[in-house]
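Ligand-bound model needed. magnesium ion.
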Amino acid sequence: MTYTYLIKYAEIALKGKNRHIFEEALVKQIRHALRPIDGEFEVRRAQGRIYVDASKDADDDEVIDALKHVFGIVGICPVESLADDDFDGICKAAVEHMGRNYPDREGLTFKVESRRARKDYFKDSMEINADVGEAILEAYPELKVDVHHPDVSLYIEVRETISIYSKVIPGPGGMPVGTSGKAMLLLSGGIDSPVAGYMIAKRGVKIDAVYFHAPPYTSERAKQKVVDLARIVSAYTGPIYLHVINFTDIQMYIYQKCPHDELTIIMRRFMMRIAQTIAEETGSMGLVTGESIGQVASQTMQSLACTDAVCEMPVYRPLIGFDKNDIVDISKKIETFETSILPYEDCCTIFVAKHPVTKPKLDIIERHEHNLDEDIDRLVKTALDTDEVIIVK
Ligand code: ATP
Ligand code: MG
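Prediction:
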């Protein structure tokens, strides 16, 4: 026997051609998620369903864990899959399923819920429910039928093959990565930006990332931490092209030439400009950050307006309305939290002023940026020319 998983997906109220694209992307992401796992897997589409056949040596928990990382999946059902539609065989498999999965049967209630997608099958779904139910009761008289609030619903799907299952393990939902274009995530080593990347990818967006590194003020360990975060996120998103930009000279130059209370905001404008240039060159249609209104001085409405002023492509901020607590909860769920809180320095904190402006005015910021005219283009060009690309997977 092979082990088969029926994959449930929603949001496929999407019609026509979109449905096809959605399913193909989902199959591709499922294959990607299963690649690191021991065993052999066949992912197949049949009659509006996706099935994963796993070889015997595959570990059930590992398979389910991998599938829980695939956006677009709403439910994972381990099924008994029968090639033969012989009715006695169905009853036997149903009885075995109940016996194996529910060893404590005393007083357990159940119902059979069948769906006949093949109208030529010789029993209709009402008959299947009744007859399989009877076979189960005969084998296990200690069970009881409850059609309204059963402890166990046993599903039987009669299609090209027969699927029998009773467990629906929740998937992450969302849309398969690759169905909604690509965006460039500004990924720092903090708590927020990995979560922002996860959230945008959950809507089907493929992500690349850029990290602004400031050696020797930020260490190799700080950079490694960002690579590690990208790796955790890539379990959901697929491979991430991480661009590491050496930001030191730009930062120092701003520090020399501009008022210190405007440092963070001017720095962030240069991050956005550089991220946008890379995005344009690599096919991303938007930028993604981990900002949320009011969290710090550089995230007031006024500051966000000043950062946005340099962007010609949309900036997506999936966490904009989230409290820190909510963001922390998600980061724990997706397992980036423990890495995010490692205490390595961040390039933004090193030159930070004691009292940064919280209500920057765009005209003033722009005027002060002119102090940089002499050298900034050259420094930005050098930073872009020395972009180090790490493929994280
Ligand atoms: P995070 O937890 O994501 O670091 P934060 O609360 O520390 O966010 P800021 O430091 O103001 O907030 O950064 C805001 C956003 O700017 C980050 O969420 C991230 O998208 C981007 N960002 C900040 N620093 C860097 C960096 N060194 N490299 C790339 N992106 C950065
Ligand atoms: Mg940060």
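The longest strand covers residues 73-82.
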